[in-house]
């Protein structure tokens, strides 16, 4: 009987920890900011978005294989400064690029962004597609 209780408690603990990890990783930063506030150590942890660098297109800033902490608690995605490095989701995958221009089109504000190694390889990035920003 005691064994079943101990095993049940261990399973519950593991499920709890996995739930916390999933919430921190996948819940949008603004929602987390509302839940935990902005002035606590917990807010710093929940805003971290670790990214493993793959490829060399941002080689001027990051090295391939590094794990870089981005910030997913972005106060205003429509007013990100030119030159800021962002992670965004396009149709195929997540990409790391630098914002080159801010434009206001018929569908709203969007950014022209490209990797440092391929400046001419522009992507149109809408604020809702931005996952996190790099703050050095």
Describe the protein's architecture and organization.
It contains three helices and seven strands, in the order αααβββββββ. It is of the alpha+beta class and 136 residues long. The model has no long low-confidence stretch (mean pLDDT 82). Helix content is 29%, strand content 30%. The chain has helices spanning 2-26, 29-36, 41-47, and strands spanning 48-52, 67-71, 85-89, 94-105, 108-114, 123-125, 130-133. The protein has a single domain (2-133), classed as SH3 type barrels.
What can be said about this structure in brief?
The protein has 136 residues and is α+β, with helices and mostly antiparallel strands.
Key phrases:
30% strand, 29% helix, 3 helices, 7 strands, alpha+beta, 136 residues, elongated, SH3 type barrels
Low-pLDDT windows of residues: none
Provide the helix percentage: 25-40%
Q: What is the CATH level 1 assignment?
A: Mainly Beta
Q: From the alpha-carbon coordinates, what is the Rg to the nearest angstrom?
A: 19 Å
Structural class comes to alpha+beta
Give the averaged pLDDT, no decimals.
82
Q: For the report, how would you describe the main beta sheet?
A: 5 strands, antiparallel
CATH architecture: Roll
Shape: elongated
Helix-strand string: HHHEEEEEEE
> Order of strands across the biggest sheet?
6-5-4-3-7
Q: If you consult CATH, what is the topology?
A: SH3 type barrels
Total DSSP E strands = 7
Portion of residues in beta strands equals 25-35%
Our measurement of the CA-to-CA distance between the termini, rounded to an integer number of angstroms, reads 54 Å
Quaternary assembly: single chain
Query: What is the number of helical segments per DSSP (H or I, 4+ residues)?
Result: 3
Q: How many domains is the backbone divided into?
A: 1
């Amino acid at each position: 009987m005691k064994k079943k209780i101990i095993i049940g408690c261990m399973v519950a603990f593991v499920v709890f920890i996995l739930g916390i990890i999933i919430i921190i990783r996948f819940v949008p930063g603004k929602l987390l900011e509302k839940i935990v506030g902005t002035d606590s150590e917990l807010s710093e942890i929940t805003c971290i978005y670790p990214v493993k660098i793959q490829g060399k297109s941002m080689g001027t800033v990051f090295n391939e294989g590094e794990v870089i902490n981005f910030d997913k608690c972005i106060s205003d995605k429509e007013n990100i400064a030119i030159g800021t490095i962002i992670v965004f989701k396009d149709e195929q995958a997540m990409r790391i690029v630098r914002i080159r221009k801010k434009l206001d089109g018929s569908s709203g504000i969007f950014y022209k962004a490209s990797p440092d190694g391929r400046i001419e390889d522009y992507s149109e990035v809408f604020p809702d597609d931005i996952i996190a920003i790099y703050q050095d």
